[in-house]
Fold this protein.
Amino acid sequence: MEAILIGNKYYERVARPIISRERWEQYLTLIHDSIENDYSLRFITYAGGYEHHVSGKCYLFNESLKTILVNGIIVRDTKILSIERL
């Protein structure tokens, strides 16, 4: 069974997106830069078979837990599909 959401195809058996180490390092650089230079990011996450968009400034970043607080919503690394600068 599959669902089409915002032009992306997701299968119900997908437990979490797989992020390569290089991609995570790029995300880290972008997150640190947004915190230091005070600009907003858009996080596209995947949870429960649906794609979610969370936009705003990053207020807290915990590297050991790989979590980010964006607009009162905690974003975990295992749920991130992509991060974009606004």
Q: What stands out?
A: The mean pLDDT is 80. The radius of gyration is 13 Å. The chain has one helix and eight strands. The first strand starts at residue 2 and ends at 5.
